[in-house]
């Protein structure tokens, strides 16, 4: 069983998983099925104390999503109001999502392509990172800087984050 946790307020991964659901769940096994209605999102879990299982949706067999939407934009300010130090901010997200860790074999955390409270919290939670980039010089440079930052982060916060790979 695989879970994708969308930590990007744009919710692109949530949208793509909904398209995947619609393409694979109609009666004939292809075409347009009914969309998933995301009544609860990661915002509800992290800010409104909703149990995380109540915001997880089945996409297809063995693939699930904890979706995000634009309401997740408020999390940055909210978490900084709750906790002054970065480590406490990271630990908070980990503690809120922990009930899901034993429910799934693999969990992917999708983050925005920037260093932010969203991506840093994911770095704190994750065991492995996959860096996805475009095949342009600037993207390659930015990926290298991101990998250097990840190395700094691991040392600074004493985490066990490893790079599984870079996908162009």
CATH homologous superfamily placement of the largest domain: P-loop containing nucleotide triphosphate hydrolases
Number of separate domains: 2
Count of alpha and pi helical runs? 6
What is the averaged pLDDT score? 95
Strand order of the largest sheet: 2-3-1-4
Order of SSEs, N→C? EHHEEHHEHEHE
**Fraction of residues in β-strands:** 15-25%
Helix fraction bin: 40-55%
Give the CA-based shape. globular
| Uncertain segments | none
DSSP, total strands = 6
Domain AAA: 1-161
Pfam families: AAA_31 (PF13614)
Protein name: Cobyrinic acid a,c-diamide synthase
Organism: Enterococcus faecium
Topology:
Layout: E1 2-6, H1 12-24, H2 42-46, E2 57-60, E3 63-66, H3 75-82, H4 86-97, E4 106-110, H5 117-125, E5 128-132, H6 137-157, E6 162-167
Parallel strand pairs: 1-3, 1-4, 5-6
Antiparallel strand pairs: 2-3
Helix pairs in contact: 4-5
InterPro entries: AAA_dom (IPR025669), DNA_Partitioning_ATPase (IPR050678), P-loop_NTPase (IPR027417)
Domain AAA: 1-161
Protein name: Cobyrinic acid a,c-diamide synthase
Q: What does it look like?
A:
By secondary structure, the protein is α/β, with parallel strands linked by helices. The protein has helices spanning 12-24, 42-46, 75-82, 86-97, 117-125, 137-157, and strands spanning 2-6, 57-60, 63-66, 106-110, 128-132, 162-167. Helix content is 40%, strand content 17%. The strands form two sheets. It has a four-stranded mixed β-sheet, with helices on one face. A hairpin with a 2-residue loop joins strand 2 (57-60) and strand 3 (63-66). Helix 4 packs across helix 5 (117-125).
